[in-house]
Amino acid sequence: MAFSQGHLLGLEGLSREEILYLIDTAASFKEISQRDIKKVPTLRGKTVVSLFYEASTRTRTSFEIAAKRLSADFVSIASSSSSAVKGETLLDTARNIQAMRPDCLVLRHAAAGAPHFLARRIDCPVVNAGDGAHEHPTQALLDLLTIRDRVGRLDDLTVAIVGDILHSRVTRSNVHALRALGARVRLVGPPTLLPPEAAAWWEVGHDLRAGIRGADVVMTLRIQRERQGRNYFPSLDEYARYFCLTRDALAEAKPGVVVLHPGPINRGIEIASDVADGADSLIMDQVTNGVAVRMAVLFLLVNRARASGEAESLAESAPLRRKAG
Ligand code: CP
Known about the structure:
Blueprint: H1 16-29, E1 47-52, H2 58-69, E2 73-78, H3 90-98, E3 104-109, H4 114-119, E4 126-131, H5 137-151, E5 158-162, H6 169-181, E6 184-188, H7 198-201, E7 203-205, H8 208-212, E8 217-220, H9 236-243, H10 247-250, E9 258-260, H11 273-276, H12 283-302, H13 304-324
Parallel strand pairs: 1-2, 1-3, 3-4, 5-6, 5-8, 6-7, 8-9
Helix pairs in contact: 1-5, 1-12, 2-12, 5-6, 5-12
The structure holds phosphoric acid mono(formamide)ester.
Phosphoric acid mono(formamide)ester (CP) binds at residues 56-59, 130, 139, 262-264.
């Protein structure tokens, strides 16, 4: 099994095998970040450009670290300091970047579908680093890798996702992946923050304790004020009273439960500090695994020809190794 997609635009439509292949490839890259010299020559001579039209700490930085650990050159463009502020369109910006012959474009944009739009118009692989409230595929992949590392499996899991489901691209990518992997998912939040289609995806609930009861994994989400054009609840205090993941509420989950949050976290709003920093929290592991996932994605997309060549040469050398042995 190999990953034969030309872009990574989302997890919707990917097979269980493709998702597991991405996670397994990421797992194999983790060891590089534990070395004293954290660099391999895999993407030497390749250029990765990141184009971010929204703020980011984790995603942008980990793509840069991932590219550099693979020896690629990395160029980072933030829309706030690019010619986008002079009125240049996304497509014109991307065409100008393409004219400099990058090997991969990583895009974060507030508009759902922006990476798909570019993927049809430029001739290098495009990675979706978050498009509006649509998808954030590398975040879901790192979530799954983190769960598997700690829980030991991705089969037969009950996962509760709590909070601002309506605006959450992380939820959508996780829903697609967890569905492909056969997990049970509960979506929990105030009715105003659950999209009408959520009930068709999975079990939906509005009570935090009932929603996380017996769960193996609880994923809490930030309230995305920047995407909310109106008030979805009376106040943050009111929201926290009903939906903040406290230690007391977490006791409803299965013993050994793990807690995830894509970040950035709002302490005391969607998650209590002692839960965020507690032994059940995998929030920092998620960030660590983000580098390995992005190394895997860049490797598989940028170096596809070389990757399949390496697989072939390994296969070809197997009989020689057997003979030598
Ligand atoms: N999880 C996530 O996407 O974080 P950033 O917005 O900091 O990249």
